[in-house]
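Input record (one chain):
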Amino acid sequence: MLKLVYSADELMASHPFAQFHEAAGHKLHGGFDNDGAYTPPRSLHRWPAIHAWQAEVERKGLPLIDCSPDLLKMGNYPSTDQQRFLLRNGFAQTLWNSLTIAGIIEGRGKLLADFPAPNFQEIIVEDISEMCLGHLNKGLLVAHGWDEGGNPATDIGAHDEMWFAVRDALFGEGAYPLPEPPERIGRPEQGRLMPQIPQAHEEYLLLLMNLTMIEVRAEATFRFYESVVNATDTFADNPEGVQLAAELIDRIRQDENIHVASLRVMLSEFRGLTIKTNDGGTMAGKDLFDPIWAPMIEWHVTTAFQASREQTRDTLREQILAAPDGEKLFAEFEALEQRQMAAE
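The corresponding structure, as predicted from the sequence alone:
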């Protein structure tokens, strides 16, 4: 029989690591088993719990929402070929900035550890004590937040420091000044979208939905960095740094897989449950969830991508045009995107 109820201590427990995780001068979370394989932090029981809750969703015949990379319509901007072009032509700071911003944004995820969810049992008819939804405040949110931004009680770095370690493995520490990160990457507030339920529950559901799509979009980022780092004409004089950077990116992906899986299960659970409404009635979770989820996907994979592309393009255009032969270089840079679009 599957174990479906876990304590906070269980969901926060890590494996007994044979070796702790350090890279490029950074002390990092997670560790390695006796065979040298990386093991994510706080995954001793968290992974089995998520698998068990997912199995229950499937046993009940409920569909799991699509959180696959297939949702992504676009790749990355700049593209791999464009970023390699920038590196070859003296614009290495563009990649350094990108990796630094990735770390800063990851660090913001620590807020999950300090932002408890409302009690969803209050608005759900069925008992959720044996569900992922019933464990939000029993370690799941804290574990997720600390994965992103670290446990403030320790000096162990999380995903923020892991991205900085990727950067430092490739460029060395402090190669360029710190860039200014975007203010936010989630969908802007749209006003009340679920007036049938209390505002606190709506806001947290929207947070989880936004977070799910941010995690899905991260896969495009992983692929981009891996393709740039592993290209034979980039960082050819730093093979050890390239290898370490690629390994670190894969370790971050392993950690994020836990997040995507847990978010997918909890939102799928909510979609399949009966929701108590403010007027004293009830409604199917899917009737509340689906009208919000489809536009949320579209915003993240199309609207947000286009807005980010335009902002990044303007910044890169300014930097390239300031260089000798800037107009020629920018034309070549643009042509790479046109060539890719024609090939697709």
